[in-house]
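Tutorial, part two.
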Amino acid sequence: DQQLLEVIKTADTAIQLIDTLLLSTDMHSQQVLKLEPLSVPSVLHVASEDIKKYAEVYNCEVELSIYGNYNPVIGNFEALRAAFRTLGNALVESQSGNGLSKIVLAAHKSPSGINAGVYCSRTEISKDMFKRARALFGSSRQPLVASSSGSAAGVFIADSLLSLIATPLQVTRYKNMTGLTTTLLPSQQLKLI
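Running the prediction step on this input gives:
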């Protein structure tokens, strides 16, 4: 039955959100983070496969936009996968009710590293809105009222994880889409090779 399948996928996503919150809490309590050189395209590919399962429920298409060669970055694979998956699921949910929608996981080079993030066609996401929502996080049940039909907790859990191993989330534009991205730092060890 289709409704049962949708309930199961939604429940799985809720469990993933809780797991990501626990991972974030655990990483914040560690004195030394376990960081390693890794490939941004591989992280985004795995995260996009995770998101596709949930996106089917909302009739949302998931695309990857990764062109060119990328040097390895320093990070934690599971934390980045969880952050991008959680962020993607939140943006999928935010577009529900808009008919066929699309999110794009993308990466591109910048002077300070590799910018990676999730983009959607929602125009309500702005730098000012995100700044105000970040200030409300922890004191309001729904800090992202204008852009999400759900609790939007996933955005802030992803932000918390990414602030440990990269830069905090920021609002950016990419090919007429708005998204939330982070800058991942290049691996200095592998740069010498």
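The chain has one domain: 2-191. In part three we will examine how such features are distributed along the chain.
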